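Suppose a colleague, Dr. K., hands you the sequence of a protein chain of 106 amino acids and asks what its three-dimensional shape might be. Before reaching for any lab equipment, you can write down a predicted structure in token form. Begin with the sequence itself:
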Amino acid sequence: MRTRHTTAATLGAALLLAVTGCSSDTTDPKPTASPTLDVGQACSDAVYEQLTNGVDLGDDQPKPAACERLADDEYLDTLLAVTQLLNKAARDQLEQDIEDAATADE
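The predicted structure, expressed as tokens, is then:
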């Protein structure tokens, strides 16, 4: 359960940075809402949900409805970012399971 929360938080932060980009301008520390950000977050959430439910996504598959307004390259970037985060979470969980099994045998 902890991994899911960590994954979701990491996913949200990474996607927020990927959609908004980084800036060295510190004059306005408050993030501003934009339609692109809203669409990007909604798309990220939809991609995450579909991938965790076993739905195959890719450039040859239809986009989730929440991603329709994104350009193809933005959608594929989102798909890649979500896939990488899910893969990292799975690797981290596997490492934890191996560690738990090793300590249980001692």
